[in-house]
Amino acid sequence: MKSTASLFRALLAVSMLAGCSSYRPAPAAFHKMLDQPYRLGAGDRVRVTVFEQDGLTNTYNVDQSGYVSLPLVGAVPARGHTAQQLEGAIADKLRQGYLRDPDVSVEIDRYRPIFVMGEVGAAGQYSYVPGLTVQKAVAIAGGFTPRANQESVDITRDINGKVITGRVVTSDPLLPGDTVYVRERLF
């Protein structure tokens, strides 16, 4: 009877320790996204330059429906496209009766924001800058609270139109539009 109770306590302790090991690798798609070219989405702002056309050269926002609205040509689909693909789409629209051989350049002026919530000093929406990691985002959001789990966080990311949540370490890079959730530690 005494050995059964000891065995039960040992199993309970092992299961509790297994629950404390909170790091589960994120899905493989999380890391594959880092090696792919950046795809535009709602909330991004692009700088469109049309050579020798000052009236068309400007900064434009990608709207909620994923389009960029330019003078003359109207709405051009941008969501899910790279900057180079958007250049081609704008040039194609301009060739349809407006310019003979348009030279279009598109660069990202501002990325869509990231969101940091949970056990941080000041949860909220923050600007994304290239090279941003989880640790840097937490620092921008006022740092960890005393109760925060500082080893890993949950990230919610839109991957090819599917919203996926995965657990990553704090040194992992972020992408525009990510939501970072800092959990409370158990002990």
Order of helices and strands: HHEEEEHEEEHEEE
Strand order of the largest sheet: 7-6-10-8-9
Question: What is the arithmetic mean of pLDDT?
Answer: 87
Which ranges are low-confidence, i.e. pLDDT below 50, for 5 or more consecutive residues? Answer: 14-23
Number of strands: 10
CATH topology of the largest domain: Outer membrane lipoprotein wza fold like
Largest sheet: 5 strands, mixed
Q: Which structural class matches the secondary elements?
A: alpha+beta
Short description:
The protein has 187 residues and is an alpha+beta fold. The protein is built from 4 helices and 10 strands; from the N terminus they run ααββββαβββαβββ.
Kindly list the characteristics that best describe this protein.
28% strand; 10 strands; 187 residues; Outer membrane lipoprotein wza fold like; alpha+beta; three-stranded antiparallel sheet; five-stranded mixed sheet; single chain
Notes on the structure:
This protein has 187 residues and is α+β, with helices and mostly antiparallel strands. It folds into 2 domains: 44-110, wza like fold, CATH 3.30.1950.10; 112-184, Roll (Outer membrane lipoprotein wza fold like). 24% of the residues lie in helices and 28% in strands. The chain has helices at residues 2-20, 28-32, 83-95, 134-140, and strands at 45-50, 58-61, 67-70, 74-77, 104-110, 114-118, 124-126, 152-159, 162-169, 179-182. The protein has a 5-stranded mixed beta sheet, with helices on one face. Strands 2-1-5 form a 3-stranded antiparallel beta sheet, with helices on one face. β8 (152-159) and β9 form a beta hairpin. The protein is elongated, with a radius of gyration of 23 Å. The two termini are 31 Å apart. Mean pLDDT is 87; it is low at 14-23.
